[in-house]
Amino acid sequence: MKTVDFEAMAERIRNWGRWGAEDNRGTLNLIGPEALVRGAAAARQGKRFSLGLPFDRDGPQDGIGRTNPQLFLHTLGKPVNPAFPRVQWADDSVFMTLQCATQWDALSHVHYDGVLYNGCKVCDTLTPTGATRLGVEHLADTGIVSRGVLLDVAAYLGTPMMEGFQGITPDLLNQVAAHQGVSFATGDIVAIRTGAIRCLTIDKDRNLFRKHQSGLTPECAEWLHDHQVAAVCADNVAVEVMNAGAVADEMCLPMHGLCIRDMGMPLGEMFNLEALAADCAADGQYDFLMCAPPLGFTGAVGSPVNPIVLK
Amino acid sequence: MKTVDFEAMAERIRNWGRWGAEDNRGTLNLIGPEALVRGAAAARQGKRFSLGLPFDRDGPQDGIGRTNPQLFLHTLGKPVNPAFPRVQWADDSVFMTLQCATQWDALSHVHYDGVLYNGCKVCDTLTPTGATRLGVEHLADTGIVSRGVLLDVAAYLGTPMMEGFQGITPDLLNQVAAHQGVSFATGDIVAIRTGAIRCLTIDKDRNLFRKHQSGLTPECAEWLHDHQVAAVCADNVAVEVMNAGAVADEMCLPMHGLCIRDMGMPLGEMFNLEALAADCAADGQYDFLMCAPPLGFTGAVGSPVNPIVLK
Amino acid sequence: MKTVDFEAMAERIRNWGRWGAEDNRGTLNLIGPEALVRGAAAARQGKRFSLGLPFDRDGPQDGIGRTNPQLFLHTLGKPVNPAFPRVQWADDSVFMTLQCATQWDALSHVHYDGVLYNGCKVCDTLTPTGATRLGVEHLADTGIVSRGVLLDVAAYLGTPMMEGFQGITPDLLNQVAAHQGVSFATGDIVAIRTGAIRCLTIDKDRNLFRKHQSGLTPECAEWLHDHQVAAVCADNVAVEVMNAGAVADEMCLPMHGLCIRDMGMPLGEMFNLEALAADCAADGQYDFLMCAPPLGFTGAVGSPVNPIVLK
Amino acid sequence: MKTVDFEAMAERIRNWGRWGAEDNRGTLNLIGPEALVRGAAAARQGKRFSLGLPFDRDGPQDGIGRTNPQLFLHTLGKPVNPAFPRVQWADDSVFMTLQCATQWDALSHVHYDGVLYNGCKVCDTLTPTGATRLGVEHLADTGIVSRGVLLDVAAYLGTPMMEGFQGITPDLLNQVAAHQGVSFATGDIVAIRTGAIRCLTIDKDRNLFRKHQSGLTPECAEWLHDHQVAAVCADNVAVEVMNAGAVADEMCLPMHGLCIRDMGMPLGEMFNLEALAADCAADGQYDFLMCAPPLGFTGAVGSPVNPIVLK
What is the 3-state secondary structure (H, E, C) of D73-100? Predict the structure, then answer.
């Protein structure tokens, strides 16, 4: 059963050319000076939250597909300079997949029909040492900083964690927003809470985490488009609900295609929203300054991130 | 000739125990709600700057000591799910030393006499897979966000770049601050500009960069202490001037020892301050919100960072 | 129940000082010119076998502990020299744990009571960037080449694969040798076949492999010592049977301790003996030249290897 | 000036289809049972040599292009099993480029005009996670073992090391062979000594090494073809002389193209022939058993190797 006309929606929300043929930033272009000032103005209580998961061998990956960070402190108890033996240092290296834990998908991460955001052809763009267009360095340059708005879906549904694979529809987003009393402005970053990250932070069980992956339905791409959202993040693996393939026929991960490839919108995944959500519930302020800067790996298709929230 | 009594100064500025025996955050404890509100209030113009260098094979390292990031896009033109061949993705891995480009030194990075910040013994703390105390994850948790204040020493001296190895003294810092009309408050992050990063950003010459490493003299550690600064960063390799060993006898990198080990102050290195400095000179506003979150690598002694500034 | 007096056996077979206080080669010293000539003389039929497993992401490791090799072809379709665009090359990098598949344990790999082979103290020897003594480079220098003798225990027991965790005793080794009609000479390399590797090569099931880990009992260390064996290898994870901890009280992996630390004997693990064993059964020749050279990673505690057999 | 008709020579020596359309082993097919027996028969004195360079951070690479091995001992002083605290182990990981030191080029390493050995198209064969044809695993399977013959060109010329970039012609090879009194048989591995490796082994100077890269001229490809050689190795960076581009117009590294792509012959580079050469000069035996097994990295375009010689 076809519940969404994927192609028609993709056409309606496609932003190719909207910010020029050479654009590599997509919907982050929506974050103008007003959005920055609006974001900073939301930081009025002096509260601070880190939304990043730990980066280490116990991370979310099972090690067969993506690799969790392998950290090595290889310089230990070594003088920096043999002439000054009292002074010593430690130095470290890491091997990791860039999308192993809290991270941003760059606009080069997902594509369909051989074409990336803004009409870039895959064959011209993706190389084994990096993307020649749409690499995460272009997102890094903007910082991915703006006003953030939390939509705490799990709390609205009265559960600490949405179980299984529940689809979050535009209607549900609207209900949550109304319930929380929030509205949206151009350039906002929307944060969706399902509670799934608790499988990692409380249960410490990466396999359990894979079994509870509620998230946005494909129609939410249009909702994000209509609300002039700059970026969307969530506390699950893929922002979108993981079984959405059946909904949008012939497309798996349909929101990845719609957001990243058609809209040019970065997806933020595995953001730990637990402490922030508790605070928002307590003080009733669901908007804040979010500063979630990717590292500027030239040509990378994603980046780990430690997102910081100020209220 | 001994110009600084290193041991006496170390004793005066040592913060061990100041925030408890279990503290892992050092001077970042100085960033309280007031500092956060003060920082956010400085972001009033809607301007945004990224201070991060590119992370790639052409980075500042010569490849013999630390390794620049080696990025691999290893999944290219692969369907995410073979049942949906239209949809494909790219995925990437990186091998890097954590301190190869723009980065924070964690409190476990440098030590002398076998003891780290807060009296942690090296032998109990540093292991080949990470530090059991003072790892960068504790800094990541705070976000390293506060009001930032730029001291543009190069501009004050009337040069685009301080050449060679010039020491920046507390007196000089005071002159620059007076000239710029800035003052300091508890929990500020101070950014020191020497212009040296231009060797990388303009000349694209990593060897030249090593030949121009002006920076703070050891006495500045006490200046930072007295001004209740939370963290200090600069556009050079080590924040401090690189030939300071002779000044503080028996100590190389004396400010590393004084700041990291005695005060518990993180050092931010290779911050690209060029665009920010030009803007500050133009509008006369030298303070701003700085959000420079390290990644929470468990037990790491440093972290790459993409520092974001909002004015 | 204590069936082996571990300490007494360790004392009997300990080779410390036997080849000098500075020795790093252990029992490989037993491979003299006669052993090399004897080995080469066994290569008379012109047959050749590789005993190495594939090195790739589908290797024996589960990815949580040791990491299978992550191979990246990062230079593809690039001219070697832009002046000659017709000529292009590919280049590759790998990240791996050195003991992820077919491999040799170096004499620095396992120790007990804080002391390694030849009395080297752990604290003086093992550093995060390599062992200062007993690294695999010393084994690499000898090539680990000599006459090899296969003891096909599984075939003797009439099974393609020994199931579960069966201990192979010295008595059983003697029975197999007598059945095969083989005897031993100083400096031989003994290869033990349990058939367990078929879980990888036929079933392609790394979890199944962990469930069938028959191997040598601790007493075999003395058998190896008495037969003047230079090195021992097998087609399982650890040469020894994996539940031997209970036999030698207070010691897990007792043969690792006895062989590597007391005798100075390298252990070869995950050698694929299937094709070789079939050939030996067919022609009745169970001895051969074995050339299994570790790579000379300076200071490494093990090395991947592609062992070559000539008959 | 065109001294070699590259295209005509390539056509004469091209082995495509000679061993079937699916062949991945190229000239290693020339090593039949007779060659193996002949090789083993040369191992009659009980002498043994390792031709491998050390694999470590001080290797031949400058770190900007290829990366020398980065070894990490990350498990140190850790009990294998907490129930048995006396027994501890060390474990290690490495990051490296596969061709950083002593190594074999696989048949997928170099190509021209978009086609690899045996007519394999580059676009069908090379992927970011490995070559689907012609990977080094196919060479690993053969072991690269046969009779080896040393041609000590430097000794013939009366110098410890050929300086600069001297071309070694087929005539010179014939003179050296005649002087040494050696002849060749089908399936031999030829080892060419220029002495250049002394820049690494004696002078410890990787930059000096790059300045002395004498080697084979392109015409030697036909000499190797006519002598039915299975593989060729040398003690320099590329087997061939490094300035040969001018000789064979429009082609850089012409022997790489001719040997790897047209003949299907693996090239062995940075083989340390110093000790072997001294021994051959002393006893007059210039042939031996060479066993130089690549590791079976699935899909890799090269492999590190520790080549072992028995005389």
Answer: EEEEEEECCCCCCCEEEEEEEEEEECCC
Q: Taking CB atoms and an 8 Å cutoff, what residues of chain A touch B237?
A: none
The nearest CA of chain D is from the CA of A129 a distance in Å of 9
β-pairing, B267-269 vs B103-105, is: antiparallel
Residue D194 three-state SS: coil
- B64: Cβ–Cβ under 8 A, 6 or more apart, which residues? D57, D62, D63
User: C295 with C140: CB under 8 angstroms?
Assistant: yes
Residue A298 and residue B94: Cβ atoms within 8 Å?
Answer: no
Task: Determine the residue of chain C that is closest to A73 in CA distance.
Answer: C128
CA distances from A77 to B123, B127, D58, D80, D173 (A): 9, 10, 20, 24, 53
Angle, helices D33-41/C33-41, rounded to nearest 10 degrees: 160
For A169-198, write each residue's pLDDT tens digit.
999 999 999 999 999 999 999 999 999 999
> In chain C, where does DSSP find H-type helix?
6-13, 33-41, 122-125, 136-142, 153-156, 170-180, 198-201, 206-210, 220-226, 254-256, 274-283
- Tell me the HSE value of C126 on the side-chain side, using a 13 A CA sphere: 28
Q: Do C93 and D95 touch (CB under 8 A)?
A: yes
Q: How far is the alpha carbon of A95 from chain D, nearest alpha carbon, in Å? A: 9
In Å, how far is B307's CA from the nearest CA of chain D? 26
- Interface contact flag, B93 C93, Cβ < 8 Å: no
Residues 6+ apart with CB under 8 A from A178: none
B33: left (phi over 0), alpha (psi -120 to 50) or beta: alpha
Residues in chain D closer than 8 A to B90 (CB atoms): none
For residue A137, what pLDDT band results from cuts at 50, 70 and 90? very high
Q: Give the pLDDT confidence score for residue C80 in this predicted structure.
A: 78
Block means of pLDDT (10 residues each) for chain D, 311 residues, are 78 98 98 98 98 96 86 83 87 95 97 96 93 98 98 98 96 98 98 98 96 96 98 97 65 92 98 98 98 98 98 97
Is pLDDT of C41 > 50? yes
Contact residues, chain C, for A57 at CB < 8 Å:
64
Torsion from C-alpha of C49, C51, C56, C61, nearest 10 degrees? 160
Residue of D nearest to C81 (CA): D252
> Quick check: D222 and D10 in contact, CB under 8 A?
no
| Residue stretches of chain B with pLDDT short of 50 | 1
**Alpha-helix runs per DSSP H in B244-294:** 254-256, 274-283
Interatomic CA distance for residues D271 and D256, integer angstroms = 17
Mean pLDDT of chain C: 94
Question: B199-250: per-residue pLDDT in tens?
Answer: 999 999 999 999 999 999 999 999 999 999 999 999 999 999 997 555 556 7
D84–chain C nearest CA distance, Å: 6
What contacts B245, CB < 8 A, 6 or more positions away?
A81, A83, A84, B251, B252, B253, B254
The single-letter code of the amino acid at C191 is A
Which residue's structure tokens are 């290193």? B6
Q: What's the pLDDT score for residue B164? A: 96
What's the predicted TM-score (pTM) here? Answer: 0.94
Give the residue from D310, D311, D308 showing the smallest Cα distance to D52. Answer: D308
Residues C43-56 as b/e (b if ≥16 CB within 10 A, e otherwise) read: bbbbbbbbbbbbbb
Q: Cβ of B106: how many Cβ atoms within 10 Å?
A: 32
Residue with tokens 């392109």: D218
Helix (H) or strand (E) holding D303: strand D302-304
pLDDT at position C5:
86
Residue in chain C lying closest to B75 (CA): C72
* Ordered alpha helix ranges (H), D252-307: 254-256, 274-283
Residue carrying the six token digits 């991060």: B52
Size of interface A-D (CB pairs under 8 A): 13
